[in-house]
Amino acid sequence: MLTRISLLILIVSIFIFAYLRYFEKKGIYYPTKTIVFDPANSGLKYEDVFFETEDNLRLNGWFVPTENPRGTLIFCHGNAGNISHRIEIIEIFNRLKLNVFIFDYRGYGKSQGTPSEEGLYQDAQAAYKYLLSRKDINKEAILVYGKSIGANVAIDLVSKVSTACLISESGFTSAYDMGKKMFPYLPIKWIITVKYDALEKIKNITIPKLIIHSKEDEIVPFKLGERLFEAASPPKEFYQMRGTHNEALFMAKQEYSLRINEFLTRYLK
């Protein structure tokens, strides 16, 4: 009897382990290939850009300019869809007099490859290097914005390169903390291999930081955004929103724009 029970426990454990490894590979990233909109649909001028990563993948992005820009924003989007699902927020940043460079990670949209943690970090660095190659922007006024998993990518980027400001929206402390939320009764620490450890990285980032998080975020717990802010070194600001993970911005567009504008006015010289 004990042998049968032990065997059953072993089989169940192997199944759970295999499922979580599968989830880690397939359940973190939700890329789509089809570009459904572009900035021209909203009356914005843009350049369709292709650039390469260090591991020789060809990525796609859009450079959306504005007149008399106060700076240029690198846009690290979330884990689902592609750049064509972010037109409304591109418009918001553009109206704030920012050039916007939004790019698709490997495996998203027209970009080659398959997404992974290290791959996304490389993609953001390639986007930054592409901007440095342009002669029509102020290299001293590059700022980085990231939403959800893109916030963790943005935090990794600014920990490695020189930028003016960081805007982190709906970011999380680490993949481990997110795993504990999703699978509270499992030994996540011994199962997952991805880290996305923004908590340790943000401690050493000295540029001005705006941390944005909704109190009602049902995907990334609000307390993880608070912990990121608490760990961050000054100068830093926290903007608490209301609404769900994907709706909070659109419930308060005017306030959102105002808060970001105030932050940029204070720190983007």
What's the CATH architecture name? 3-Layer(aba) Sandwich
Strand-and-helix sequence, N→C? HEEEEEHEHEHEHHEHEHH
Structural class: alpha/beta
The number of helical elements comes to 9
Please identify which CATH superfamily we are dealing with.
Alpha/Beta hydrolase fold, catalytic domain
> How is the CATH topology named?
Rossmann fold
Percent of residues in beta strands: 15-25%
Beta strand count = 10
What would the principal axes of the Cα set say about the shape?
Answer: globular
Radius of gyration: 19 Å
Major sheet: arrangement of strands = 2-3-6-4-7-8-9-10
What separation lies between the terminal Cα atoms?
A: 73 Å
What does this structure look like?
- This protein is an alpha/beta fold.
- It has one domain: Rossmann fold (3-Layer(aba) Sandwich).
- It is built from nine helices and ten strands.
- It has helices at residues 2-26, 87-95, 117-133, 149-158, 175-182, 198-202, 222-231, 248-251, 253-267, and strands spanning 30-31, 47-52, 58-64, 71-76, 80-81, 98-103, 142-147, 165-169, 209-214, 236-241.
- It has an eight-stranded mixed β-sheet, with helices on both faces. A two-stranded parallel ribbon has the order 1-5.
- Helix 3 crosses helix 4.
- The chain is globular.
- The mean pLDDT is 91.
